Amino acid sequence: MTAGNPSALNANLIESLSMVMVITSVAAVELRRLRFSAVAYLCQALLMVSLLVAFAAVNPALYWWAGTALLTKAVLTPWFLFRSLRGTDDRELKPVIGLGPSVIVAGLLMLGFFHLTHSQGTLLAPSGMAQLEVFRTNLAVASTVFALGLYAVLTRRDAIKTVIGLCLLENAVHLSLVSLAPELPETAVFGVATEVVVTVYLLLYVIGGVREQFGTTDTFQLRELRR
Amino acid sequence: MTTETSIIPAVTFLLPIVAGAPVLLWKRIDRRVQQVLPILTAALVTAMAAWMASKALGGVVLTTWNNELRVDALSALMVSVIAVIALLASVYSVRYLRLEGLIQRVGAEAAAGRTRIFYGLLLWFFGTMLWGCVTNNVVMLYVAIEATTLTSGLLVAFYWDRRALEAGYKYLMLLTIGITFALFGCVLLYAAAAATKQLSGSNALLISEVRSVAHLIPGGTAALAVAFLVIGFGTKAGIAPFHPWLPDAHAEAPTPVSALLSGVMIKMALYALARTVSIFYPSWPVVSVFLVALGVFSMVLGIVMAMTQDDLKRLLAYSSVSQMGYVLAGVGLGTYLGCYGGLFHLLNHALYKSMLFLSVGAVIHATGARRITQLGGLRHRMPVTSACFLLGTLAIAGFPPLNGFWSKLTIYLALAKAGLWWAAILAVATGFLTMAVMVRAGTRVFWGAPRAAAVAQPPVREVPALMWLPMVALAALCLLLGVYPQLAYPLLDRAAAVLATLGA
User: Fold this and answer.
1) Sequence-separated contacts (24+) of A140-143 with Cβ below 8 Å
2) Which of A173, B105, B431, B467 is deepest in the core (most CB within 10 A)?
3) pLDDT given for residue B455 in this prediction
4) Is-contact B119 B38, C-beta < 8 A?
């Protein structure tokens, strides 16, 4: 670690922000109206940016990360999402797994990852700083959100919802880098973040085509190639 | 081994990106310019690749921007393969992507803009693939590989019909998620290398430097990094069980793009896998057994799936899954012989799989059909295409004296020499299955009873020279490397030495 004293970190603030971030992620996955879901995603992205700012107290380079994340994840991505939802019926198609089981899954994931990051911390993040409590919490939260995003991609029928899941997953990756590789050069972080935005843009563009051709964004209808 | 600073590695990948920008951005660019620019760029890149290969043969490693880019014999081999296939695919595109056909599919107004996007993205696709092969930065390796997904995503969905859109959506979604695991792997590699405190600052990002401290990385972290890298790059390389995106994308993309996806893109992902994971071979040789097992699983599953396909392009795509299994089994072995066989097979597969895809494209171009059950007896109508396809099927099946025979034989010998008899036996069995599947498809389509497509009016004719010339060039290369396999030896020898870190 280049600068700062870990005790300068506001552990309470970081932990509360992390908890709220998990809750907004669950909301983004579970809300049935896609617009509300996109709003929940926006909140999640903003929370992630605030977390980066909180961590920047020990590592000023993270201010740059926060800036990159704000632009790509909290401005551009939601803009693309809202644009693709404009003028459409935004009620989500019934998912494969409903609300009740999903909340249980989210809870179990959280517990599992907390246990994992606290028992196997050295394995996951081989830098000295990452052994501190806040960084372990951060890693656990990032893993939970990552798994939630993956869960959304796998169990949701609506293509737009799967994109929101992908965005959650990628936000988690960005957040996890704070613990895994805090000294990663800004160019690398910028490259990673830019690609995510381009991916989301291209996916929504292709989904626009799907809506045009199939009349729906139901991924269950995408089975031409299995014939 | 000496290092030399040179700007050429940077020019190699920046040139196609710079050339692609005006095609994509300038709306009124002439159609001729769109067609010629990729050919010209690929020809220049081929020349630069040849120069870099000659440098590599002299034992020189080229570096740019403080070791950020690094071209050794392995990178030079990859760049050469990409450049040659890209050149031939661009020549083929000129006549394959007919404006009339496109107008029928998407309408006159959209068609003009569509070709611009095609050629622009094609150039960017070349550029990003080349970037992945010359970079020495482990995070940029991930960025480059994800960039190849992004530049090729719209090429897969190019025809914008139901099938193409489905393939495009799956392609972008599955590959992005898969490759995210590779990002974790790359970051873990970097963090673990930095934690050894042997490397200063951003040197821990450089693959060539990480290699020197690999033995200091704790076993658990190494295992986790290897698992993430295998899932991530393995998805992109079409290794089973991470392959479900591959047949859809490779079958629905326009044929020159299929040739690039199957011929080179999946190889550069495998290159990335080998480049990163081979770091751990000397300290944890068990990694190599895991990779061989995965390779064998992939080769068997791929060919079993190929057996049930009626669609020619899907059949070829599944056979790519199987053939990538051979490459992984060879390279994953980590011995010199294994790496030599794996890389030789990588080169051979790039040549004949591209040729097979281009031949099927010629059939589609001439008949409009691509299902085996709809085709038959095209031998008299399309002599050049049928000769090329036949040569391709024999090469992929490993008949002597074609190139596929030598690389498969090397892999069998390497597996046997390493004592992995089960793998060698399964690989030989897969070889026989491949022969059955491919030769059966070839004989039905070109020999067999003439079907609707062959007796249609107006009669089916051979494709134009600009389409068959690239096929014939690839066929000639397959034959040449089959009769004189020693031609590839000097470069493959040095490239295999880069990867081979296990004894015997």
Assistant:
1) A140/A110, A140/A113, A140/A114, A140/A116, A141/A18, A141/A19, A141/A21, A141/A22, A141/A113, A141/A175, A142/A172, A142/A173, A142/A175, A142/A176, A142/A179, A143/A109, A143/A113, A143/A116, A143/A117, A143/A172, A143/A176
2) B467
3) 60
4) yes
CB contacts of B114 in chain A (<8 Å) are none
CB contacts < 8 A, A to B, total: 119
B183–A173 C-beta distance less than 8 A: yes
Alpha-carbon separation of residue B323 from B259, B304, B330, B430, B483 (angstroms): 14, 12, 11, 10, 21
Residue type, B184: F
Q: Report the pLDDT value the prediction gives residue B428, as an integer from 0 to 100.
A: 94
Kindly identify which residue of chain A lies nearest to residue B195, measuring between CA atoms. Answer: A127
Residues from chain A that touch B168, judged by Cβ atoms under 8 A, are 206, 209
Q: How far is it, in rounded angstroms, from Cα B160 to Cα B166?
A: 9
Chain A residues near residue B251 by CB distance under 8 angstroms: 225
In terms of CA atoms, which chain B residue is nearest residue A176? B184
Q: Which amino acid is at B20?
A: G
Give CA–CA dist B401/B92, Å, rounded.
27
Q: CA-to-CA distance for B41 and A206, rounded, in angstroms?
A: 29
Q: Residue B107 class from Cβ within 10 Å (0-12 exposed, 13-18 middle, 19+ buried)? A: exposed
For residue B166, give the nearest of A153, A192, A225 by CB distance. A225
Strands B60-64 and B2-5: parallel
**CA B320, CA B353: separation in Å to the nearest integer?**
8
What is the distance between the alpha carbons of residues B108 and B406, in angstroms, rounded to a whole number?
49
Q: In chain A, whose CA is at the least distance from the CA of B184?
A: A173
User: What is the ipTM, given to two decimal places?
Assistant: 0.91
User: From the list A123, A173, A203, which residue is nearest B221 (CB)?
Assistant: A123
Give which of A163, A202, A204, A212 to mutate to test B binding, by max B Cβ within 10 Å: A202
Span B307-314, average pLDDT: 92
pLDDT in tens, B239-259: 989 999 999 999 999 999 999
Say whether A166 and B176 touch across the interface (CB within 8 A): yes
> Do A210 and B169 count as a contact with CB atoms less than 8 A apart?
yes
Is A200 in the B-facing interface, judged by CB distances under 8 Å? no
Distance of alpha carbon B319 from alpha carbon B247, whole angstroms: 9
In angstroms, rounded to a whole number, what is the distance separating the alpha carbons of residues B337 and A120? Answer: 38
Q: What angle do CA B370, B375, B380 make, to 5 degrees?
A: 120
CA dihedral (A219, A221, A224, A225) in degrees, to 10, reads 30
Judged by DSSP in three states, B69 sits in strand
Partner B contacted by A216 (CB < 8 A): no
**What's at A44, amino acid-wise?**
Q
Rounded-to-integer distance, Cα A90 and Cα A37, Å: 10
Model confidence pTM above 0.90: yes
* Residue A52 token pair: 């980066």
B432-469 pLDDT per residue, tens: 999 999 988 988 888 877 776 556 666 788 888 899 99
